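Quarterly update, task 2.4: adenosine-5'-[phenylalaninyl-phosphate]-bound model.
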Amino acid sequence: MAAGIESWLEQVAQAPDEATLTQLRVRVLGRKGVLTEALKTIGSLPVAERAQAGLDSNKHRSTFEAALAARQLELQNQAEISLTPIDVTAPGMRPQLGHRHPVSMVLNELTDVFWQMGYQVVDGPEIETEWFNFEALLVDKDHPARDMQDTFYLKGGNLPRTHTSAVQIRYMMEHKDNLPIRIVAPGKVYRNEDEDARHSWSFYQIEGLVVDQGITVGDLKGTLEAMMRGVLGDNTQIRLRSNYFPYTEPSVEMDATCVVCKGTGKVFQHDCHLCTGTGWLELGGAGMVHPRVLQNVGINADKYSGFAFGFGPERIAAIKYNVPDVREFWRPNFKFLEQF
Ligand code: FA5
């Protein structure tokens, strides 16, 4: 058989149909097939040759079976091709085209607004050290503000960033000798929190940072208003209210009228599920960069000042597209996504 395997393989490769393949299978692997007969003679070989002869026979068997299977598939494919008539006059099928995700569309619009105002778009790592995510932003280990952002911790102490504010620190450290700074940093963040209509455990943020001489709260307010007008249009009602972040002073939060209850706080006499009855949806936080943060990264806080902000594009997209629950954006629901 060893000598003849090539010729059997050749016959398989040239078999014109499946019936020929069956005959070849019987002639080689059947009860009286050449390979079966060859196996029977192994017992009569000298002991020293038996093991090798056994190995060779098994190898020939699997090579032959693989060749049979391959040729059978080939014959079936040929049959299918020749059975399916091609109607050359039929209209072509358009491939289904995807489109940008609504949250990406909002992020692109936001970055466009800032790009037009002379900002650079920058990036930062999603896995951060505690120092960049918290300590450099004046949130020490036992600072109560750590509870504001429930954190996933990785083995070794690093963490998936809980906000994009860590990018501020990285950028300021790298560019402290090359001021002014004007950047936005969109990216994904992660929090170990329960999901509801306003919260996901993983979501996007867009961080903004400006550092220059003579930057004031007025600049911050004007910038936030320009951003909201650019993305949500002039008719959306927004408000700023004072808030607390350890790394900005003063700090504010920006809200927009809730999309579900249109600011009334009620839906059929019940508290609105999205804004929990307040009539407002919180879109982001902001403030004047705390002078100690500037000092920490080596910027002269007597000479320079700055503002920073961090906004949630899912919530902005919810307002813009009238979506009553931010979790919709991340469900694999094509009917929902195809609307945009
Ligand atoms: C912060 O993350 C601050 N780092 C923002 C900031 C930056 C303040 C720079 C000052 C200076 P906050 O935790 O409030 O703040 O989140 C900011 C925005 O992210 C929220 O207003 C909201 O729009 C969005 N957001 C927060 N948590 C979630 C969540 N679980 N799901 C979806 N969006 C969220």
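Highlight for this quarter: The chain has a mean pLDDT of 92.
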